[in-house]
Design goal:
This protein has 307 residues and is mainly beta. The chain has one domain (2-306). Helices cover 9% and strands 44% of the residues. It has three helices and 17 strands. It has helices spanning 2-14, 67-78, 93-96; strands spanning 30-32, 37-39, 42-45, 82-83, 88-91, 112-123, 129-138, 150-157, 162-170, 179-186, 189-200, 203-212, 218-228, 247-257, 270-280, 288-300, 303-306. The strands form two sheets. Strands 1, 2, 3, 10, 11, 12, 13, 14, 15, 16 and 17 form an eleven-stranded mixed beta sheet that branches. A six-stranded antiparallel beta sheet has the order 4-5-6-7-8-9. Residues 11-27 and 34-61 have low confidence and may be disordered.
Length: 307
């Protein structure tokens, strides 16, 4: 994921005056655990709800959305000013975005544009087919490094009716939205995953947010997934003005919960975060040390908390 986000950020920096639409490819930064493991909570396995087809990626890594699905979602939300070629729609932000969700960059704009950047059919609860979707909205000129588009998420039933549509807030850099994935997180809920990457002054960082489809896209978990200083370090150790290089990343595994009798429970899956690589020491940031750590997070009281 990091290399893909870095490539995209480089392209965006070069074409900052344009309106790019490319997102990065899928990777394995989040997975459903393939091996059984025993803990005090019982046996954790991989028997997760079936994931439906999310569509094919383009050769450039762009997440493709069925044009018919895109048009149905956008016209249901924002009216008839739909552009077939661009799969986008124009709308009045003041008329459609609630005041509490309206970003400052949108407040004086008469027109905004919106795109469906993610749409996936999910079968949850079992037997109830829905389309989980994400929309990016932006206004002209909102494409600087610190400029974020407005990201919203929603659910459409199998008959094409919008059941819910929630504005999550401004996310991303250079006017581009985060990369989006979806992950089953219990038998009756899917998690919407937002990967937010940024390259600044030679440092690359990637953050991760998990939102609950069931609970109106409430944020359940967030963490930093990776960091490196490859753009501002000395890999050979010959430049006294540059520091030592470091690079670390965290892989997330969702572990399906069973009770001691091997019955699949309704509990939310545990998250196991495995961090490896090198990073600055907490005691002395000029000292680089190896890291290989695992932490488990369990769902309690409306969010994921470290065990």
């Amino acid at each position: 994921m990091k290399n893909q986000l870095l490539f995209l950020l480089a392209i965006i920096c070069c074409l900052v005056a344009c309106q790019p639409t490319t997102d990065s490819e899928n990777d394995d930064s989040t997975t459903v655990e393939q091996d059984d493991a025993t803990s005090h909570e019982g046996t954790e396995t991989t028997d997760s709800p079936p994931a439906s087809d999310s569509g094919k990626d383009s050769p450039e890594g762009e997440q493709k959305v069925d044009p018919k699905v895109s048009k149905l979602i956008l016209t249901s939300l924002y009216g008839d000013s739909y552009y077939e070629d661009e799969q986008s729609i124009e709308f009045s932000p003041l008329d459609h975005i609630p005041e509490g969700s309206l970003p400052e960059a949108f407040s004086d704009a008469e027109v905004a544009d919106a795109w469906v950047i993610f749409a996936k059919k999910v079968d949850v609860p079992p037997g109830d087919l829905k389309t989980l979707f994400v929309v990016k909205s932006n206004v002209e000129g909102n494409d600087c490094h610190a400029c974020s588009p407005l990201v919203s998420a929603g659910v459409m039933d199998d008959a094409g009716k919008i059941e819910k549509h929630i504005y999550l807030g401004p996310y991303g850099v250079y006017g581009e939205a985060p990369y989006v994935e979806a992950q089953p997180i219990s038998r009756e809920d899917w998690g919407l995953e937002l990967h937010i990457g940024d390259l600044h002054m030679g440092y690359f960082v990637e953050y991760y947010n998990l939102h609950s489809m069931k609970y109106d896209f409430k944020k359940l978990y967030s963490t930093q997934l990776s960091e490196d200083n490859n753009g501002t370090c000395d890999p050979d150790g010959t430049d006294e003005h540059l520091g030592e290089c470091y690079e670390w990343e965290t892989k997330l595994t969702y572990k399906v919960m069973h009770d001691p009798e091997e019955h699949l429970t309704d509990d939310y899956y545990n998250i196991v975060a495995h961090t490896t690589g090198t990073r600055p020491s907490k005691e002395d940031r000029n000292k680089i040390e190896k890291v290989d750590e695992k932490a488990t997070y369990a769902y309690r009281d409306g969010s994921y908390q470290k065990q």
